[in-house]
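Colleagues,

For the teaching module next term, I've prepared a clean inverse folding example: a structure given as tokens, and then the sequence designed for it. I'd like students to try predicting residues themselves before seeing the answer, so please don't circulate the second half yet.
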């Protein structure tokens, strides 16, 4: 430890922190010794600013290493900052996202500096303040395992006799990690399952689960289900603490542990929901099970439907209905009770819905021209009563391919609470309608004119034959508006039947979806006016739109020369990934662009190489030059890693290979891909957090197997 008198012995100005030279660190530390709640001249908390400088969003700096001994001295000698500084030191010792940092790294040296101070800081285990004792326990958990005899004895005393139930619970968890005697740990945890304090019972059950193999023992699951519903927070498992001055630990470790057993986690979640779903703990756990495990959508929908009536807050209801909407297309029929519940949410007040919603058909709005997955809608929020008198005139919401990506995006930070409530309610209505469309509830189609493009697109995607007879009256108007999701869901038969509306959409609101769909109709499904219209697309528009329009015109007229010239210019001046998919649609007509595509494929930048590989085989008809690259990018594996970012590259490579297989360009699937394909097709876990369903579908395509129903 180093006392404040030694601060001048460090050349702080020569060190860096998050915002440059660290010459301001000594004065901040001195102020913390002198004042309990000091503020800077700007009115900011000095302690918070200091820690933000030393540990900014997980980044460490040379000044951080030098500051550790001074922070340790501060924790030991200044009672009013003790808890917070102990939390900070705990976080610095466990900062690395992937585990304990390498010793030679800056993170490793910072960790070593914290651990060097640990023996003296363990005196805080007997502090009069129970919150300080808890913070000291969590700091002990980042130290050597097993801990020294003195620390183990002190923790055992805290567990046996501390008046704070939370401190006893944390001490029990720490002993399970730090006590060198496994038999003593086992007996202590087993006895604590029947303890008189709820917090201790829960800590004992979680420690027991940590040592068990899924499926977990029913007795421990029952304790977590009963006692975990009402314990508001957890400091167990030595999870990384939040930044100063917010003491406490996130629940990541607990969630990771519970979701190892999906059936046990769902039973716990339903018990927490039955107990009131406090802080949405139960419904959040349901979502986390779905994020980690496949084929539990029906169970998750049923649990979320039980939680929905418990929440009156608009944001909480929105989160639950949005989650149901995302699950529904894969969940099957949820039953009449759930459908009735969603129908009540979907009804809404049409006037209020239209006033606050960017989704209602009657709202004046503009959809982004960026096409599928980028539907940013800007709308005018109408004023319907005195409560809405202060509503600003614009709000926005992002409408992506799934309701799980619907996120409110404020046009002005000062948007009033009334506007926020209106938009939240509108999104609840829209997500409920998306959920009902996902399960094909025909009652939603009684007034199809009230439904938005995304809802109708969901019907067309998942329940086309049942929905079409009722959708025919409203399709012309909605197609003319050019909504990207609806156009993507049309298919060639409906597109050809609504050619005038498609041309109107391209004329009034040019989008990638409209331009691409017209080209897919080809010369037999279009006319000369269509080709002329595609030629009039503004050349200063988004480059992806220009590329798609040029390609569609070439596919209709058979004259690829203008498109090839324009695409070559775009490749030289714009971002290749925006242009290459359009080049691939040209097929053999795009063969003159093969040298430019090959240059991207073999260039130094990884960005765009997958699109280049796809475009190259489509325009040349020869998959052999790109096949070795695709196999390399797929990186066959038999291991599961949810945080493996390489899955993005695998997804793109598998997508191209599956298209080759479907088109007959790849006669047999390369055998070296089989381990990866078997993993994607049969793993009970999700192999990627975002694109798991697509990866499974691609694997079944390449294995020549049907997808499971």
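(Answer key — instructors only)
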């Amino acid at each position: 430890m180093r006392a404040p008198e030694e601060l001048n012995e460090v050349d702080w100005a020569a060190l860096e922190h998050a915002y440059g030279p660290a010459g301001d660190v000594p004065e901040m530390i001195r102020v913390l010794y002198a004042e309990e709640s000091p503020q800077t001249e700007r009115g900011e908390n000095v302690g918070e600013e200091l820690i933000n400088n030393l540990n900014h969003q997980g980044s460490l700096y040379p000044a951080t290493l030098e500051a550790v001994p001074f922070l340790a001295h501060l924790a030991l000698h200044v009672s009013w900052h003790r808890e917070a500084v102990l939390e900070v030191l705990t976080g610095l010792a466990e900062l690395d996202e992937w585990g304990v940092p390498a010793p030679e790294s800056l993170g490793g040296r910072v960790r070593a500096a914290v651990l060097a101070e640990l023996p003296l800081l363990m005196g805080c285990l007997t502090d009069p303040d129970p919150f300080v004792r808890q913070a000291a326990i969590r700091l002990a958990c980042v130290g050597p395992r097993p801990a020294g005899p003195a620390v183990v004895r002190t923790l055992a005393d805290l567990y046996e006799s501390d008046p704070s139930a939370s401190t006893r619970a944390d001490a029990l968890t720490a002993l399970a990690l730090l006590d060198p005697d496994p038999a003593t740990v086992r007996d202590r945890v087993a006895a604590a399952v029947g303890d008189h304090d709820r917090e201790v019972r829960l800590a004992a059950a979680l420690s027991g689960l940590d040592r068990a193999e899924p499926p977990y023992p029913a007795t421990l699951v029952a304790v977590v289900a009963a006692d975990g519903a009402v314990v508001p927070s957890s400091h167990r498992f030595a999870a990384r603490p939040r930044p100063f001055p917010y003491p406490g630990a996130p629940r990541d470790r607990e969630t990771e542990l519970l979701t190892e057993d999906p059936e046990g986690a769902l039973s716990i979640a339903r018990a927490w929901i039955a107990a009131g779903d406090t802080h949405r703990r139960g419904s959040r756990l349901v979502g986390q099970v779905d994020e980690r495990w496949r084929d539990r959508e029906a169970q998750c929908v049923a649990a979320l439907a039980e939680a929905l009536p418990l929440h009156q807050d608009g944001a909480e209801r929105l989160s639950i209905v949005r989650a149901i909407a995302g699950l529904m297309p894969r969940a099957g029929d949820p039953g009449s009770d759930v459908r009735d519940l969603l129908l009540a949410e979907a009804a809404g007040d049409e006037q209020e819905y239209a006033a606050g919603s960017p989704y209602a058909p009657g709202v004046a709005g503009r959809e982004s021209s960026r096409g599928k997955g980028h539907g940013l809608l800007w709308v005018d929020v109408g004023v319907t009563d005195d409560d809405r008198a202060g509503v600003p005139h614009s709000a926005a919401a992002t409408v992506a391919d799934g309701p799980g990506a619907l996120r409110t995006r404020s046009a002005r930070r000062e948007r009033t609470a009334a506007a926020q409530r209106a938009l939240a309610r509108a999104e609840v209505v829209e997500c409920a309608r998306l959920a009902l469309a996902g399960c094909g509830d025909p009652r939603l189609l009684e007034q199809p004119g009230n439904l938005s493009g995304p809802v109708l697109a969901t019907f067309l995607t998942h329940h086309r034959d049942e929905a079409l007879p009722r959708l025919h009256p409203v399709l012309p108007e909605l197609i003319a508006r050019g909504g990207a999701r609806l156009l993507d869901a049309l298919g060639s038969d409906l597109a050809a039947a609504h050619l005038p509306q498609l041309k109107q959409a391209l004329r009034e609101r040019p989008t990638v979806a409209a331009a691409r769909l017209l080209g897919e109709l080809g010369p037999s499904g279009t006319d000369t006016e269509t080709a002329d219209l595609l030629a009039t697309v503004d050349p200063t528009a988004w480059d992806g739109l220009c590329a798609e329009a040029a390609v569609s015109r070439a596919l209709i007229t058979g004259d690829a020369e203008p498109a090839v010239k324009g695409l070559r210019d775009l490749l030289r001046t714009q971002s290749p990934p925006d242009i290459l998919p359009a080049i691939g649609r040209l097929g053999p007509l795009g063969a003159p662009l093969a040298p430019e595509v090959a240059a991207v494929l073999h260039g130094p930048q990884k960005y765009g190489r997958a699109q280049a590989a796809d475009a190259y085989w489509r325009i040349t008809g020869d998959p052999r030059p790109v096949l070795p690259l695709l196999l390399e990018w797929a990186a066959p594996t038999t291991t599961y890693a949810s945080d493996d970012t390489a899955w993005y590259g695998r997804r793109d490579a598998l997508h191209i290979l599956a298209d080759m297989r479907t088109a007959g360009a790849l006669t047999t699937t390369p055998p070296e891909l089989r381990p990866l394909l078997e993993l994607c097709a049969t793993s009970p876990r999700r192999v990627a957090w975002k694109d798991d369903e697509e990866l499974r579908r691609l694997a079944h395509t390449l294995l020549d197997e049907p997808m499971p129903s």
